[in-house]
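hiii, so i know i said id send this last week but things got crazy w the move. better late than never?? heres the sequnce for the chain we talked about at the cafe, plus the structure i predicted for it. fair warning i was half asleep when i ran it
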Amino acid sequence: MKKYIIVALTTFTVILNSCSTGQSQKVKANLTAVEFSEKIKEFPNAPVIDVRTPDEFSSGHLQNAQNIDISGGDFKQQIETLDKSKPVFVYCLSGGRSASAASAMRGAGFKEVYELDGGIMKWRGANLPETISLEKPKATGMSKADYEKLFDTDKVVLVDFYADWCGPCKQMKPDIDAITKEMADKVTVVRINADDNVELCKELQIDALPTIKVYKNNALTWTNVGFIDKAGMMAKIQ
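okay and structure toks below
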């Protein structure tokens, strides 16, 4: 009986260790920009899916990327044309839409889906290469010199870096609009679309959205990355 118990415990331990080994060897799916770039090199024939809008895509995208807009009505039909048994890479502007796309793809049976953590903004922040569609020249946007001229004022300047497809950006817009209206005599609010100002974002190292910057007396006094409510912004303005 004792021998039987020892054998049973030994067998259970082996099974438990095997499970632990399997978990520790689980493939990392959410990759930094550099890891994403290196992983693509490992699978050069794997599809790279940009799930942003066609207009965003044409402004700059990863080399050989395929545009399948997650907000389009035929997203599910288009991903069904891909081989679910092979690796696939997905990304968007800042990571939110690609996370939703990756989840949907895994639910549809895709075995190996890699996501670009932080989206193409992190890719740009790491100075990795991107391709511009020939039919649409890359928008230069505001220069850094023009940006710095914004602060030549006696007013407090609040700069909101946003994107049309950024969920938290859209949540914050009513508060931004309220501050613009209520504090017009003391605060200048400037909203800068990150998609239209790629080079400026690179120079200022804006690699996540939303980003709020507050300037007083021509000097940066506060930066916030991510959602913040009106009260939080007002505390830094006054």
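btw Confidence is low (pLDDT under 50) at residues 1-25. thought thatd interest u
miss u guys!!
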